[in-house]
Amino acid sequence: MRIFSGIQPTGAKHLGNYSGGFRQYASTQEEGEAFFCIVDLHSITVDFDPETLRRSTLDLAAMLFATGIDPQRSTVFVQSHVPANPYGAWLLSSVASYGQLQRMTQFKEKAERREFVSAGLFTYPVLMAADVLLYNADLVPVGDDQRQHIELMRDLAQRFNARFGETLVVPEGRFPAEGARIMDLQEPQMKMSTTGGTPQGTVLLLDPPEVIRKKLKSAVTDSGREVRHDPEEKPGVSNLIEILSVATGDSFADIEARYDAQGYGPFKKDVGEAVVALLDPIRQRYDELRADEPELRRLLAIGAEKARATAQPTLESMIEKMGFVQPQGVVDTAPSP
Length: 337
Ligand code: TYM
Description:
By secondary structure, the protein is mainly α. Helices cover 53% and strands 7% of the residues. Strand 4, helix 8 and strand 5 (172-174) form a beta-alpha-beta unit.
């Protein structure tokens, strides 16, 4: 089985990314041949700073390894190192409709918040589709906010196959059973995010323990005293139950039973401690890995080679099926000695 996922290098990575992203990458890599892509080409679709992009691409590589991706087993690479990805996106844009892209909620939300809406922000899901489809991936581990993008890529694969002949694998999304959508601690109606959320309500993977404890202690809870998972009625408490479940592996039912009589104080304190216990070792590993930049670059170079070799045959078969004339090999006219 082939597994593929991508994550953007811009913005500090947070507990939501851990829950829907990193955590699933580390576990799904056991199930087959996995590719994890640092999607730097996606990051230029909103305001960005070149120096920060350069730095955060390596930051993210270190974080992927720190959260458990094994470079012996899985391929980690940078999207811009593989020209087939944007090339494939252009080809797929012929089977993506304007109306369909207009309906993408992520596009609508992001476009609403800014004055300059880049063309790239609009066509972003087509590049994401190419990312996955060029690698013939069967499985795409992501958080809940990517559901619509997964549907779109499935649609594009099917449409391409129907139009040009069986070429692309139609992939499936994998969403975690708990923690598929971690919410902001201060505004539990909004998903946790470094762009749309509140700073105090966003737990960063590199936050030191005191900061994590403080953020969880001040997390918004709901009226009443019951520790019960009910996202409609009790969004704040339900989010904390999900976070505790992600951090410890305990089921919602166990958590509810344990804290029901205790009220919110001890509950929030324990969630804070569980998140510290989860993130502290990650931060330490990250610091070590990030300090060795030549090693990170070496691993990314190996990853790029593997990724190029994997994507190229799919790209060539798309090119061939779409009717493009392939260049002839250069005829050797050099005079013989
Ligand atoms: P990105 O970089 O925004 O997020 C990376 C992963 O983190 C998940 N995530 C969350 N999960 C739970 N709760 C949250 N609050 C939360 N916030 C983020 C996301 O669902 C994602 O899995 N479009 C993608 C990147 C991408 C991609 C791909 C993914 C590009 N090409 C190909 C898969 C396959 C994105 O912006 O993720």
